[in-house]
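Final paragraph of the annual report: two paired records, presented back to back.
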Amino acid sequence: MKRDVLPVAIRGILPANSGCAIFVGNADKVFVIQVEHNMGAVIDMFLSETPKERPLTHDLMASIFQGFGIKVDHVVITDVKNSIYLARLVLRQDNELGKKIVELDARPSDSLAIAAAQKSPIFVTKTLFEKVDDMSEVLARINESGEGSDS
């Protein structure tokens, strides 16, 4: 699997009229995943380690994972179909009975929020990375103007 994916990170978040643009990529290329406003805010909170008054849904999930000895191994953004991105959340449980790995279909917004909260690696499939538009210059202009959150 590791040969078919590339490591990426959340490079920036920009609120927009229709939601939030999450810039994901590496030194070679950055692409955008559109998410709802609230998910953009949640991802930004986890990245900036902003204290929360009450646990959010993703905090609750982290507590459940911890209670069962489950770690978020990594997240993979796998494909885009009709402008909708697809992702997989890979969970690992190590205990006295052995190791179990479970791969779940998940929204990219939830996957990115969980990865940000758990500080887990994020990957993108090579085939997806090759077909998305490079938004590196757009992100650089946004960062120069100070409009977006630089993660």
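The closing record of the year follows.
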Amino acid sequence: MEDDAQPIANAWQPFTPKGVAAFAQSPPSRWITLQLVVAFIAAAVVIWFLNANYSPAILEAIHNSPDSAAIQGGQLTNLASGILTQKKFFAVVVDLESTGQSGQTSDLQLELRPKHFQICSIAGCVIFDYPRTKIPLGRAAAEPWWGARQPVILAICGALAAAGLLLAWMLLSLIYAPIAKLIAYFTDRELSWRGSWRLSSAAQMFAGLLMCLAILFYGLQAFDLIRFLFFFGAHFFVSWIYLISAPFFLPRVSTAVATEQNPFETD
């Protein structure tokens, strides 16, 4: 690693350990702005992913539902058992007999049962009861409803993704900051607690961009769900690499101590 006692350059990129270290001594507005940029990119990728892979499946399920289909009084009515849509990413299955024989070939599957629905994935199923209010599911009512609200729903999902990313960075920085501070202490590098917080946040930005790239490749079906989950776990290791290596590029603590004149020494 570079042993540089000179002040580090102005912070502008989080792609190298030295670039991450620069954020420790930068104004707060610098790393906050960069965080917002990365969060905006993440929101855009999530919106694209949902619009490209989930919206068509939802619309197909609506088209395959009879106009009289509805949820009424907490029960599913006028909808026969069968598959409404089955894509790689999302499937909607009606299972009135609760046999579970439809299986699961999609990454995420919505199963409609007589009195409840469940969302299933590789991690298992989560069960929800139907609301007591009447909800039309047929094409005549559901298609205009979905068409009018789809942009808003996608925008909300993107905003939640960005907010979740910023919150995750904030919480992880609480854990990472003492580690960066400890490394700087034992390597005689200048790092305040505020600087440690900024460095810890910057160390996660490149990993966040890599995760956006993984979502993009997953959405393009370049790899499957298992590989996507592998990249999700691996992107934390990328943050740790930057967190551990960045303090070595901070300026050294000045060890020069001004010597005082001996009062018993004569001129």
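Residues 66-137 form one domain. This concludes the annual technical report; the extension proposal builds directly on these records.
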